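Q: I'm writing a short methods note and want an example of a predicted protein-small molecule complex. Could you take the sequence and the SMILES for adenosine-5'-triphosphate and return the bound structure as tokens? Please keep the output block clean; save any remarks for afterwards.
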Amino acid sequence: MKNRGWVKFTKSEEETRKIGRAIGKGLLPGDIICLVGELGSGKTTITQGIAQGLGVRGSVSSATFKLINEYKGRIPVYHFDLFRLDKLSEVEELGYREYFYNQGVTIIEWAEKMRPLWPEKRMEIELKIISENNREIKITNLIGREINVNGNSGNRDIN
Ligand SMILES: Nc1ncnc2c1ncn2[C@@H]1O[C@H](COP(=O)(O)OP(=O)(O)OP(=O)(O)O)[C@@H](O)[C@H]1O
Ligand SMILES: [Mg+2]
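A: Understood, no commentary inside the block.
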């Protein structure tokens, strides 16, 4: 399959959101997005874009006290934020499978906390802080079909 990896560079929150919107438009029920990146790298920001691309109208928050938020879009969106989780067993207790293999799209912040449970078919997005307003965003599409990730940002295909 072509269309597997990209590294993008954004200079603002809005540019990061725009990449999210492009991705969101191409997602289908059952797709899973694993977000990895330090505090403040833009995981919630790109999630907001993805949700918009999926037709979610309300706001998507970074309410870390709630582990899972659901939004209504063209298809349901399940937004996991695993920041407060310490053990894999806690993820298992969340009943994550009910979400993964359901009729919605699952987006997971701090996805590395459940790496052993990542499904084979997934999109990985790694965000890095380069400077105050600059982010490096590495996208790996392992979903098994092409997904357009074009925002207006600096862009380099990696294969
Ligand atoms: N190019 C950029 N892309 C995304 N966010 C940016 C960018 N430049 C600056 N920012 C700022 O970085 C912050 C990103 O916050 P966000 O909540 O999206 O990060 P996060 O990775 O979800 O953090 P947390 O780990 O706390 O959940 C925001 O304050 C945003 O305005
Ligand atoms: Mg966040």
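A: Remarks, as requested: The chain has one domain: 10-144. The CA atoms of residues 121 and 143 lie 4 Å apart.
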